[in-house]
Every structure is written in structure tokens, then in C-alpha cells.
Write a structure and sequence with these properties.
2 copies of one chain form a homodimer. Chain A is α/β, with parallel strands linked by helices. The first copy, chain A, contains 13 helices and 17 strands. Chain A is 40% helix and 25% strand. In chain A, helix 6 (189-200) crosses helix 7 (232-245) and helix 8 (257-268) packs parallel to helix 13 (389-414). The radius of gyration of chain A is 27 Å and the shape is elongated. The two termini of chain A are 53 Å apart. Strand 14 (297-302) of chain A pairs antiparallel with strand 14 of chain B, so a sheet runs across the interface.
């Protein structure tokens, strides 16, 4: 069951815009039982769209077109599809009335130009658009199905869920893709691959992808299953990988690292304070991304200058002079100091050299110290991180969360 | 001069991965004089790649393929391209020696499998890969050119700059795309469009795109120009839009808002301190993204709890009790307090309700107060922001930077 996605719009062919609708669509099409074999982005050009559609009808069972359903001259999806199929495009009275009502409710008279949105391709089923004006269409032709969806993500998602998913799933006859996602922190992509390649390569039915995202590794495994079938290879593989990677796995449910750490803090009834130097607030931004984080997150100090390290995080000035701001000693003092200053049970601190300037031979760009402290312990770690300024900062923030997780785990182990 | 981009790799057809190489390539191809008319993502499937190539050769002058040049069974770009062109693929002795040397330098013996990377299509020019093992190829056929580039962005960019750009520019004969980017803060996308649509629609040679990104609006204008030609429509349009939008424009050079604000602080010799509640560190993260920000950025307090607002930002407890943490009074007290606590010339504070919980009728989710204070002034503003938790936080952080910019501008006006 092959599907393909065609995104239509000249703005998607500029250097600023990526088509992200296709990510959502791919996930949903996989769930509905379709494999996405091609994705294309095409401009508002009638001939180009027609050419693509003719080729698509030769090779795919399901063709999803997004965008180009607006009311302007540039919106060519309806007319290009009708021509590629050799079918008529006619004004649909019912759709027109719906559009006019929609405008009237808001106190407007519909402009003549919007009538175009009520044009329907011969033989198409109209798909209602509760979130906007442009209706969608489901068209069957030559054993394939074509779906026309509006471009705005909110409208596209609402229409897909309500009208397209059930039709697609029916076409695929109960086949679907089962997936598992494992989140790993503390190892590089190649370290992970070295350990698990001998395992996953022996599972022929499971497709495994390794993805490095801002300091964590996401391992995605997927297997096609028939109606009612259990993805036994997938379950078996996931279990064996969990055993092989053990503690470096922070999540088997797709949960984010900051959310996992948040749950650990909440369960242990402990509170957190941050002292951030080179990350400048990125760890705080991640921690507070989680709704309800105020339960365990006390706050943070962005101690970008030495003055703030001294006055707010209680770092002794002599320590800064002797060891420098980027040192194990200062990381420790920051973690202990911010914990006391903000009255939290745990203090987490990061200090490092993000670059591009400021590096020296003994202290190169990328050098980062992380400190975690509670009332009786303080753990310091040191890393030299690769990449440009923003990469070093992102990695440092993620590594700090990973260290906090390790600290909380070892605490549980001791309890 | 039509170009198209084909990204090859089954991992790009999963719900987790977008092809971002094509954004870089689009910008460079535009600069070199080519319009990108199609972008396609295809899996590691020989027939699919061949089918695409045959269609591409019918319609495009320049076809850029990225990825699939590795040494494994899944890397099919070389063989599929050779077959689509009906040309032979042969082991190239010189490339092979280069590969072997590369391995030897690192102390490895090259595995047999890597020999595949030394296979070259008949009639192709080999493009050196200084950043990796897979060489690229430039192939001319039927009046079109095909370029094979490695998938890893670092390798792709290095090869494009060195070997592809000059060849492409020569093909296009000096034609190129001139672009201007204007950054706007403080208005919504539709407010901007209402004001400038009457202007830009009368410039037929300029393509104008409006893009909303995390609270700022980017206006991108582009015009094709011949060899030596000046983009006079583009310059004229940019000038008229600048006059129409005046103070809401923070940049005409593509510079980020945090960088513009940083330059203003540096020039005026003033320092900044932050008090962040709902944004949790996002403003600090943005400010410190700019290299050299330590010159003017003192630091910040992430005052997520009332205790931290009181102890670190010197907010009187009675104020919190009387008006609540999300109020104009507390925004003012935070801005004044953090300025004093951190000893900076300017204090910037944000307090708000990011949701999803915590909203009430008088104080709904999305309510945000921003305060900016120096030694003699304090300006407070109030907004109700749309969207989910992360959107509200992103918008709040950008609006705070915009307010800081307004504060610094009005200061200059008074001086």
C-alpha cells in the first residue's frame, strides 16, 4: 500500500520554509496502513502539478495533495487535478451555501472570488472543513485515491482525522505500522549504534532508525502488522535493546528528558534550583516547558558575569580568581550556592566556554563542567563538546539534565 | 533556468526527519541564477530513483541529488543514476587511491565495501569531498546537468561551495536572485500584510513572502536580475516598505532581534539584567546566543516561584498577595528589583500565565506583563497571547525583547 504526499505552494520552494505537514501526514498514513514512498514539493504552477499527478497515478494507491485550495489565482490544485484526471470542475450549490453561511455568521458578505472554493471535481466526495473555508476532496480514480487537503496545519489535521484516516484505513484493510521510540542520553550516535547494531540487524521485519537530536539519541523502531497481528519482533527487539542499554535509556514512551526528570523530582518530593552560565537560561527554558513544573522547580540564576556568580550564587571570589569561572571548583560552588540561595533540595549548575572566542589551550572552546548537589553530595563532571556556539550550548543543557537524572537515580538506588 | 532537488534516503520518509539540505541548496541555487521548481524526497529504492531521474531530465536544466553515496547496500544513487542515463559505472583508480590514503592516514585499512565509493559514472567529473569519504559527481547529459552530493550537511555544503556553485553560475550566465529581508516586531502577520499589500502588489518583478516566526515577522523580497543588472524594483520596494513600517522594523539585514538589541545595549554602554517567570530562561537563552553578549548581559533570575521573586528579585510580599504574581505591579517590581539585585543599568521582567492550567476569567491563559526599567523610568505593558503553552512562552520572550528595543529607542530619542 504505497502513498505519496504532494505539497503545493511556491512559498515552500524558498530557502525559509520547509513542508512540515508531511511529517504529520506520514505518521498518520503509517498508522492507517500506508507506506509513504515519495514526498514532493511543487510551486503554484498548473503544468508542474498536472505532470506530477499523472506520474503519481501510475505508481501510488493513495495520493495526498496539500495546499493550493484558497480562493486566489495562485490556488491551482482544484483545476490542475481536474485536468489531470480529465474530469469536470463544477460549482457545488451545497458547498457554496455553506461558505456563504460561514461568512454571514461573521457578519461579512462573501466576495465573488471565494466562489472558486465551492468548485468540486466530478465524482469527488466533499470533505468538510470545520476549521476554515476551503473544503477538501476524496476522489477515486483508476484504483487509486486522491485526497485534496488545505495547507494550514490546523485545518489539514482536523480534516485528516475526521474524514481521511477512516477512509484510508478501510482501503488498507486493517494493516498498520507499529512503532516504539526509545530515548537515550549519555552516549553518542555511533556508541549507541556499535552496541545495538548486532541486535537490530537480526530482526528482519523491524526497521530501526537512529536519530541524534540536541544531545539525546532517539531510537525509532517500526514493524508492519496485519489486522489483529501482534508486532512480536518489535516487542522482542525493544526488550533486548532495553536490556543492552539499560540506564542510558531515559524513556520508552517518547517522553522528553525534561519531563522524565520532572517526574523523578515530583515523585521524590524534591525541589530544583539552577545556576546557568554558558547555557544562559536554556535548562530553565526546558524544565519549564513541562506543564506543572512549578511543583518542583524553584527557579534559577543565569550567572553570566562573575559578579552574579558571587552575589547571587555565593561563589567565593578567591575561587574564581584561582581556578577561573570554567572549572570544577566553580561548578561545585555554583551548585551548592544556588541550592542555598534559592532554598531548594537540589542545585544543578553549568559553566563552560561556548565559543567562538574565549578558548585557550588548557581550556578550549566546548569545555563544560556540570555540578549537581544536594544536602550531602556533590557530583561534578567535565566534557569537551564539539560544534559551534549553539550546538555546544544545546549539548551542555541536555547533558546537565542527564546528569541530574543520574544523580536522582543513584539516590533511589541508595534509598 | 529551472533546477530541482532530489533528496535520497528512506530515513527522510519517516515522521521524524525533514530534509533541511534543500533549504541551503535553494538559497545557493537562487544566488547562482537557478529557480528551484521541484523538491522531492525518495527512499532507498532503485526503481523509484530511476523513475524520478528520467522525469527530471525532461523538465529541468539542473538536477541536484543529495544522499545515497555511502558504501552500503542501501546507497543506490550512483547505480540508479548510471542506469537512468544508460551509462557505465566503473572503478576509478585515482579516487580509490584517495580513499585508501584517507583511511591509512587515520591508521585504518579500508574495508572492501568502501570500494563502491570509488565507482564513477562514465563522463562524470569527480567532485572532491574534503570533509568525508564519498566523492560527488557533476554529469552533463541531454543539455542538462546532474549533480550528486553526499547527504551529511557539512560535506554537502563544502562540496557545493567549492565545486558546484561556480559551475552552476557559469551555466546560468551571470543571472542571479537578489534578496532583501526585513524583520518586523510588534505587529501580527495580517496587520503587516494589510499595510504593505497595496505597496508590494504593484511591484510585478519582486516576489514578496511574509513569514511569522516566534513572534517576529520576516518579510522576504526577491527579484531576478541579469548579469550586472541592478535590482531597482527590489531596492525601491524595500525603501517604500521601510518608510511605511518605520519603527516596527528592527532589521533590514537579516540580523536577529536579540542581536539588534545587543548592539543597541553595547553602543549605549548599558548593561542588562533579566527577571523571567513564565519564560523560564528563554530570554536569557536568546540574549546569550549572541557571541560577545557578556559585554552587556549581567545575568538573570528565573523567578518561577514566589519565594524567588521575593528573595532574589526583591518583590515585596504584600504586592504579590494583593495583586498576584501575574500583574502590572509585580512586573514593575521585578524589573526594578532585578536591576538593583544584579547591579545593571536596565532590568527587563516578564510574568505571565503560559497554561494549559492556571487561567481565570480576569486573568486568562496567555496573559503576560512585560516591565522594563532603568534608573529613572519604568514601562509596563500587558498582552493576551494566543496559542498553546510553548507558543505563549515564545511570543512572550520575543515581545519582551521588542519592548526592550522600544525602551532603548525612546531613550535615544530623548538624548
Amino acid at each position: 500500500m504505497n502513498a505519496e504526499i504532494i505539497a503545493i505552494g511556491s512559498e515552500l520552494l524558498t530557502p525559509d520554509r520547509v513542508d512540515t505537514n508531511s511529517l504529520y501526514l506520514t505518521q498518520k498514513l503509517n498508522e492507517a496502513g500506508f507506506e509513504v514512498r515519495l514526498k514532493t514539493v511543487v510551486g503554484d504552477n498548473r503544468e508542474d502539478i498536472q505532470g506530477l499527478l499523472r506520474a503519481a497515478l501510475q505508481r501510488s494507491r493513495l495520493i495526498v495533495l496539500c495546499g493550493g485550495l484558497g480562493p486566489t489565482e495562485d490556488d491551482l490544485t482544484r483545476v490542475a487535478t481536474a485536468q489531470a484526471l480529465g474530469r469536470r470542475l463544477t460549482l457545488n450549490g451545497e458547498v457554496l451555501e455553506g461558505l456563504q453561511r460561514r461568512f454571514a455568521v461573521r457578519g461579512y458578505t462573501m466576495a465573488k472570488i471565494n466562489e472558486r472554493q465551492a468548485e468540486v471535481i466530478e465524482g469527488a466526495e466533499v470533505l468538510a472543513n470545520p476549521a476554515g473555508t476551503a473544503p477538501g476532496m476524496w476522489i477515486e480514480a483508476n484504483g487509486a485515491a486522491l485526497v485534496l487537503l488545505p495547507g494550514p496545519p490546523r485545518e489539514l489535521k482536523a480534516m485528516f482525522e475526521a474524514a481521511v484516516f477512516p477512509r484510508a484505513a478501510r482501503m488498507a484493510g486493517g494493516r498498520s505500522m507499529a512503532t516504539r521510540t526509545i530515548g537515550i542520553q549519555g552516549w553518542t550516535e555511533s556508541e549507541v549504534d556499535t552496541r545495538i547494531a548486532p541486535i537490530y540487524t537480526s530482526f528482519s521485519e523491524v526497521q530501526t532508525t537512529i536519530l541524534a537530536v540536541k544531545g539525546v539519541i532517539l531510537l525509532r523502531m517500526q514493524q508492519w502488522v496485519g489486522p489483529g497481528e501482534i508486532p512480536s519482533q518489535l516487542d522482542d527487539l525493544a526488550g533486548r535493546i532495553q536490556a543492552a542499554l539499560s540506564d542510558t535509556i531515559y524513556s520508552t514512551s517518547g517522553e522528553a528528558l525534561e519531563s522524565v526528570v520532572g517526574s523523578m523530582l515530583r515523585k521524590s518530593g524534591r525541589s530544583l534550583a539552577l545556576a546557568e552560565s554558558c547555557t544562559g537560561g536554556m535548562i530553565g527554558a526546558a524544565i519549564t516547558r513541562v506543564p506543572g513544573s512549578s511543583e518542583y522547580f524553584r527557579g534559577g540564576i543565569v550567572c553570566y558575569s562573575n559578579e552574579v556568580k558571587i552575589s547571587q550564587c555565593r561563589v567565593p571570589p578567591a575561587l574564581l580568581e584561582r581556578h577561573g569561572a570554567v572549572s570544577a571548583e566553580v561548578a561545585e560552588a555554583l551548585a551548592l550556592g544556588v541550592r542555598q540561595a534559592l532554598g531548594s533540595s537540589i542545585g544543578l549548575a553549568v559553566t563552560g566556554i561556548a565559543g567562538p572566542g574565549g578558548g585557550t589551550d588548557p581550556k578550549p572552546v566546548g569545555l563544560v563542567y556540570v555540578g549537581v548537589a544536594d544536602e550531602c553530595r556533590c557530583v561534578i563532571s567535565r566534557r569537551i563538546l564539539p560544534g559551534d556556539r549553539e550546538t555546544v550550548r544545546e549539548l551542555a543543557a541536555t547533558i546537565a539534565l542527564g546528569r541530574l537524572r543520574g544523580f536522582l537515580m543513584s539516590e533511589n538506588a541508595r534509598a
